[in-house]
Structures are given as structure tokens and as C-alpha cells.
Design goal:
Layout (H helix, E strand, L loop, with lengths): L2 E5 L2 E3 L5 E8 L4 E10 L6 E7 L4 E3 L7 E6 L4 E6 L8 E11 L2 E6 L3 E5 L2
Parallel strand pairs: 2-11
Antiparallel strand pairs: 1-3, 3-8, 4-5, 4-9, 5-6, 7-8, 9-10, 9-11
Length: about 120
């Protein structure tokens, strides 16, 4: 059983920074891709950024140049450095991982962490 645990959310003023962390626990699995999604009130969940094991990254246009995703493959962890935060970045942020266990591929989600950008 793979579990994703996030941390690092909170309240920050516009222009501020936050760093989100997510680590996968369990055994007998490998991870091909990890990423972050977010869901604001009344809106659909949307992609923020993804990173594959070999290092390639992908960002939503709205966060390019402000957010940086990184991975620690040895720790099965993914991080999201968020700079120059805006009120419209307010959302619940979810960690996501594509996990291979034996011959099975599955998608796993964390429980979410609230990020609020407000003065």
C-alpha cells in the first residue's frame, strides 16, 4: 500500500513564498512520475507541475517562472517551491504519483494541503 503525505501549506501574503513537500511510503514499488495539482473552491482540479524520474518537468502556464518542482528519487519525494505567490494561487494542493507495483500501474493522491495567499 503506497501512501503520499504532504506538508508545507499555510497562509502567506501576496509576493511571499512557500515550499510544499510530499513523500511516498510503502514498499515494493517504483515511481515513474510525481506531481502537484491544485483545486480552488468551485473549480476543477488542475495540473500545477509534474516531474518524471529522469528529470523532465512540466508546468502550467500560470505558474511558469514562479514555481519549481523537484524530486528526490532516493526518498520517493517531490517538492514544490512556490515564489511570488498571488491570491489566485489559493487552493488545496494535492501530491500525485504514478506508481508501478509488479506489473500494475496506478495513480495515487495525497490528502491535500491548503495554501492561502492573502494580505
Amino acid at each position: 500500500q503506497v501512501q503520499l503525505v504532504e506538508s508545507g501549506g499555510g497562509l502567506v501574503q501576496p509576493g511571499g513564498s512557500l515550499r510544499l513537500s510530499c513523500a511516498a511510503s510503502g514498499s515494493g514499488f517504483s515511481i515513474s512520475v510525481m506531481g502537484w495539482y491544485r483545486q480552488a473552491p468551485g473549480k476543477q482540479r488542475e495540473l500545477v507541475a509534474t516531474a518524471i524520474t529522469l528529470g523532465s518537468t512540466n508546468y502550467a502556464d500560470s505558474v511558469k517562472g514562479r514555481f519549481t518542482i523537484s524530486r528526490d528519487n532516493a526518498k520517493n519525494a517531490v517538492y514544490l517551491e512556490m515564489n511570488r505567490l498571488k491570491p489566485e494561487d489559493t487552493a488545496v494542493y494535492y501530491c500525485n504519483a504514478g506508481v508501478r507495483t509488479g506489473g500494475t500501474f496506478s495513480i495515487h493522491w495525497g490528502q491535500g494541503t491548503q495554501v492561502t495567499v492573502s494580505s
